[in-house]
Design a protein that fits this description.
Helix content of chain B: under 10%
Helix content of chain A: under 10%
Strand content of chain B: over 45%
Shape of chain A: globular
Order of helices and strands of chain B: EEEEEEEEEEE
Largest sheet of chain B: 6 strands, mixed
Oligomer: heterodimer
Number of helices of chain B: 0
Number of strands of chain A: 11
Radius of gyration of chain B: 13 Å
Distance between the termini of chain A: 36 Å
Chain lengths: 114, 113
């Protein structure tokens, strides 16, 4: 049981390049989300999904796209990377039952935009 | 507008001491208050959580105290150990499936031996 798996662990991009951060979970969780973590800023929600085919924006969605074609996978796409997107990105998942459930986080992708 | 305010930003405690981290929230719709622990190079992991129908919840050396009227909650780590050195995040959300957690900015705890 791997939990939430994020790939790659590290990535360096040039400004203007695009890339996809991968997130997969094997717990059959309906709810998945992406956060970015910056020093002194905590964890800020980028996008989230309550099930396959359903996504919505979080606090800081600009510059990022998501899709949810399967329950297991929730990729995050940077369309045209900017230095302001240098951050550590975390994917999380949880069950969708009444009331809040523990969020299970991956170990993050550390992204640098030059 | 910061919905969950966390303090202090950093904390140094001696081994065996009590670590206290405080959070305050503004949204009265918040109904679920978890604390997450994060070690360097790892993702956050749920440590302990409380709902506002109780004023305190204890799990081992970790205790959440909750004051609904003041809209504040805190994490107490008793007998702090070097292995507790980590970043701690408080969070809040409405008690509704599928709603996003709003995180505080985090507290970096260092426990000196």
């Amino acid at each position: 049981n791997a939990g939430v798996t994020q790939t790659p662990k590290f990535q360096v991009l040039k400004t203007g390049q695009s890339m996809t951060l991968q997130c997969a979970q094997d717990m059959n969780h309906e709810y998945m989300s992406w956060y970015r973590q910056d020093p002194g800023m905590g964890l800020r929600l980028i996008h989230y999904s309550v099930g396959a085919g359903i996504t919505d924006q979080g606090e800081v969605p600009n510059g990022y796209n998501v899709s949810r074609s399967t329950t297991e996978d929730f990729p995050l796409r940077l369309l045209s990377a900017a230095p302001s997107q240098t951050s550590v990105y975390f994917c999380a998942s949880s069950r969708m039952v009444s009331g809040n459930q523990p969020q299970h986080f991956g170990d993050g992708t550390r992204l640098s935009i030059l | 507008q910061q919905q969950v305010k966390q303090s202090p930003q950093s904390l140094i405690v001696q081994k065996g001491g009590i670590s206290i981290i405080n959070c305050a929230y503004e949204n009265t719709a918040f109904d679920y208050f978890p604390w997450y622990q994060q070690f360097p190079g790892k993702g956050p992991a749920l440590l302990i959580a409380i709902r506002p129908d109780v004023s305190e919840k204890k799990e081992g050396r970790f205790t959440i105290s909750f004051n609904k009227s003041a809209k504040q909650f805190s994490l107490h780590i008793m007998d702090s150990q070097p292995g507790d050195s980590a970043t701690y995040f408080c969070a809040a959300s409405p008690n509704q499936a599928g709603t996003a957690l709003i995180f505080g900015k985090g507290t970096t705890l260092s426990v000196s031996s």
